[in-house]
Amino acid sequence: SPAKQAGLQVGDIITAVNGQTVNDNSDLAGALLSDSPGSRVTLTILRGSSQQTVTITLGERPVNAG
Question: DSSP secondary structure string, 12-38?
Fold first, then answer.
């Protein structure tokens, strides 16, 4: 998956997308739905007690995604 390829791990908490604060799943969905597959986005994540920034390339949205 694009997340795995970018180095995201189970337990990582996404706190921002392209500098826009993410407070919950709807914020995350809203921030990502405006971008097309193949777009690159920068995520700010919290992993344990450290904050990191990763860049991912968005993939196709799964057909069964709600």
Answer: -EEEEETTEE--SHHHHHHHHHTSPTT
pLDDT at 10: 93
Distance CA 17, CA 34 (A): 12
pLDDT for 20: 94
Quote the CA–CA distance of 5 and 2 in Å, as a whole number. Answer: 5
Distances (CA, A) of 51 to 13, 15, 57, 59: 9, 9, 20, 24
- pTM as predicted: 0.81
